[in-house]
Amino acid sequence: VLKNQDLQDSIKPQKVEFHSLNFNTTLHWQPGWAREARDALYFVQYKVYGQSTWQNKDNCWGIPSHVCDLTHETSDIQEPYYGRVRATLAGVYSNWSLSCRFTPWRETMIGPPMVTVLHRNKSITVKLQAPHSPYKRKRGSKITMTNYYDLLYQVFIINNLLDEQHRVLVYEGKDKVIKIQDLRPGVSYCIVAKTYVPMLDRISAYSSRQCTVL
């Protein structure tokens, strides 16, 4: 049987880190190294950098899961935050494991735009919609990420006749509607897009493919 001190060390959560996409922010951790650690329960606290007192996150107090949603708690996106987690098992509590400092505005990942594709004759019209944040206006509509950053869009076309992996950049800029002309009738084309934040030099993953046959 592990002594209390050993149990304390062996169930201590590992790798406590923030993950954030479009300001949807969660704290993640891994269980301690003891085999018994998979039966541990976890307690999460958070605070703004510089504050002396930690806040309990009530929904993540004594939970078996290894993730805790802190979107609401980190909504002041310019502030730096810390999170910390401790584990309990068989009446023994581990020490706290601390995350690195996390500033949502600097560190959230930006998602790709929503892409809609319409075709006419030999052209494709691409409509782009910025990703949404989890935050809402007073009337209830979600605030898009363009509220927080200057976003550029990169639009790529894939000619399925040539090579499904070969993406050609056809547009980069702020426009939400892009027309791609002089395409070949009868050919299947797919469009993918990315969101680019010049100020942070950060780029999103590709959007899902939207395909059409002219």
Automatic annotation (TrEMBL):
GO terms for molecular function: cytokine receptor activity. One of its GO terms (cellular component) is plasma membrane. The gene is Il22ra2. PROSITE patterns: FN3. Its main location: secreted. Keywords: Disulfide bond, Receptor, Repeat, Secreted, Signal. This is Interleukin-22 receptor subunit alpha-2. Belongs to the type II cytokine receptor family. The keyword Membrane does not apply. It comes from the Eukaryota. It is found in: Secreted. SUPFAM superfamilies: Fibronectin type III. Residues 12-107 form the Fibronectin type-III domain. Receptor for IL22. Binds to IL22, prevents interaction with the functional IL-22R complex and blocks the activity of IL22 (in vitro). May play an important role as an IL22 antagonist in the regulation of inflammatory responses.
